[in-house]
Design brief:
It is a single chain. With about 100 residues, the protein is of the alpha+beta class. Helices cover about 60% and strands about 15% of the residues. A 3-stranded antiparallel sheet has the order 1-3-2. It is elongated and about 55 Å long.
Length: about 100
């Protein structure tokens, strides 16, 4: 049987799952504004989820300053990628049972 307690509660929340899915979907970092647009989240909601993921060690960030507005980019850390792979593994087991 599946041990549902092993589902990563940090990733399992809808907003954070959406962020993790976008971050894993491409090799290049995502800019804050691009994440915001893709996910249709408010600044406050997005930054709260990003902070939670960052505190868990799932993200890498880089702040860019230069001409115009500062920009922060995000991508998955090795820890984040491993956590996401584990999360997907449990979901695959759930899907297998449901089929």
């Amino acid at each position: 049987m599946i041990d549902f307690s092993k589902l990563d509660k940090i990733i399992h929340e809808k907003g954070r799952l959406s962020i993790m899915t976008l971050l894993v979907s491409r090799a290049e970092p995502w800019a804050f504004q691009d994440l915001k647009q893709q996910l249709d989240m408010s600044d406050g909601n997005l930054i709260t989820h990003l902070r939670t993921l960052d505190t868990a060690g799932y993200l890498k960030t880089e702040k860019h300053t230069g001409d115009g507005r500062p920009q922060t980019t995000y991508w998955l850390s090795k820890t984040g990628k491993k956590a996401f792979d584990g999360y997907l593994s449990i979901l695959e087991k759930i899907l297998d049972i449901g089929r």
